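Let's practice the habit of predicting before peeking. Look at the sequence and jot down your guess about where helices and strands might fall. Then scroll down.
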Amino acid sequence: MSTPPPSPWRRLLAALRPPRSLKVTRMGRTYLVVTLGVGLGALNTGNNLLYLVLGLLLSVIILSGVLSERCIRDLTVRRIGTDGAFAGEPFAFRWAVSRTKGHGFALTLSEVDSSLTGEGGVGYLPAGVEHVVRANLTAPKRGPVKLTGVRITTTWPLGLFAKTRVFQLEGTLLIYPRRGFACGDPGEAAVGHVGEANNPHRMDGTGDVAGLRELGENEDARRVHWLKSASVGKLLKVEREREERRTYILDVKSGLVGDALERRCEEVAVQAHRLLEAGHEVGLELPGQRLRPGAGSGQERGILRALAWLGFEEQREEAA
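Done guessing? Here is the structure:
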């Protein structure tokens, strides 16, 4: 025997059931208070016009819930993430959201059940288009943050209620140490310049200006001093001394815990950034781990990742 189709009221109740939660906004509370006042007035006076207004107000409440439910249906979301997140300062975080049919309005996205604060939104989402939503999130401290899901909320169409849907998406976000000021000195360089490869008196470097000479054939014209060249009537090239390049080994001693460990990680991160920006090579020694010296932005990213995982080795093994 075939099952009869559900009635319109059953479909309406099914549309308002969890896992989508409903939250009354400030405007919604005001609206409900006004509706209650009109209802009390209609009962006390028996005025037919008040009954008509009360019915209209109640119909708007039902209509708002149905339209909000349709707005967060048929959604698909994926987490893009961020290029780099530092503790205590906003960083750009992205999600990609799309829908298979219909239209979405006034959607707000955020991470659920995590220490991250902040949210991003999209005003209009048509069907068949993937929209990248950007948000400025903030993490309170260094280390891995476990991500469990993405929350999508809408207050459309009238702002009476905020209806929410949670998408379960597992992931881990690594938070780098807070960027601040380094009070300590990085110490003596482990290795200085050797031979002529890093001789500070060689030219074509990025150091102080050593002089001017005529531009030779097939030489880079980006170093031409145009003002002097115009005054003498020939192309003059700026010569600069080559800066000295050294190798530094930064370390975090074993036994540090709590605030002492956080301050040392922040200090090492700032020192590494300054030394790498100056063109030096930087290595890192941690309890049970050593990062060989290197230069460039890739080396800085490796140092930041090692500092972020320090003290969270068990979680690192679980994530691996």
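How did you do? The helical segments are 8-15, 26-45, 48-71, 226-232, 258-277, 297-309, 313-319.
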